[in-house]
Amino acid sequence: MIYHFAQCVLDTECRTLTRDGALQELSPRVFDILCYLIEHHDRLVKQEELKAWVWQAITISRATLDSCMRTVRACVGDTGHDQRIIKTRRAYGYRFVATLEAPDGTPLEDVLPAATHVGASDAQTPRFPEASRLPTAASAAGSVRLAEDAAEHKWVTVLCCGVVTTSAEGTSLALDALHGQLTRLAQLSKDLIQEYHGYQCPIMGNRLVIMFGIPAAQEDDARRALRVATGLRRLASRPDGRQRAPGALVLRMGIHTGRMVVDRASAEAATMASTAVGHVIGVASTLQERAAPGDILCSKTTGAASMAGQIVCDLHHARALACA
């Protein structure tokens, strides 16, 4: 879903936010807060509800939530004093109050049908428009059938590689420029990724995602991911083979290893899985966002999978971190 509001564009599929055409860098949890408030803009969202959705079972302080809300406001051009986009009900909750618009500037309320509000007595049985009802189990029995063994668990290493989008002067990279840099990085890295038997996912959002272990897992998947990361940094800094090339890219990378559920049929056919489910990509993305410009951060799981600390210590600037 793409939301337009107050010179901002939020893309929930690509997980990107732009303001006045400039890409804003949001941590995964800050992005989730903004998405949740927008998706529930028709009501006040309680603080406890927001914390339960974003942090789930993790207990956080009021200060942590306040800090995240300040970041959300800064990214969308709002402040706690003005509250033009997000209103605060002190000690209670928040509400997104900016007008959501279609791409042509028409308010979404004039484009989308009104939502059906559920009364207190119907809290467990929400209503949906007639046309969107799902078929009953009996009517759907012959239409869709999923095999019980359609998927399998695999040990996968994911490398997330992002281009630093903020200049030394503090200005954000325009979307067209970011698109060009990511496309150039993908072209530069193609042969290196193939050499180490990685799979580059289609570019989405503001990063490259490279997976090792799908469709076939290898004992040294984590080590190969680390080698690709250092190779990417070298290629990005010298795209034409020269030191300090004018077109050098500054990268930040994160690597995590863990279990994912993938299509069994794809694995058996030695083709890339069309579905890969798990938190590995999210953790690698978080590490990438925490990394300093030019840095590579890998989780302790990845460090252990690449022969404890030996490989990590051999890589300049690569550091093993505990994953939250």
UniProtKB/TrEMBL annotation:
Keyword vocabulary terms for this entry: DNA-binding
OmpR/PhoB-type domain segment(s): 1-98
Single GO MF annotation: DNA binding
SMART domains tied to this protein: Trans_reg_C (SM00862)
Source taxon at top rank: Bacteria
Protein known as: OmpR/PhoB-type domain-containing protein
Residue range(s) of DNA binding per entry: 1-98
Xref: Pfam families: Guanylate_cyc (PF00211), Trans_reg_C (PF00486)
Keyword Metal-binding: no
UniProt record, GO biological process: cyclic nucleotide biosynthetic process; phosphorelay signal transduction system; regulation of DNA-templated transcription
Transferase found in the keyword field: no
Signal peptide positions on this chain: none
Guanylate cyclase domain mapped to chain residues: 157-288
InterPro entries: A/G_cyclase (IPR001054), Nucleotide_cyclase (IPR029787), OmpR/PhoB-type_DNA-bd (IPR001867), Sig_transdc_resp-reg_C-effctor (IPR016032), WH-like_DNA-bd_sf (IPR036388)
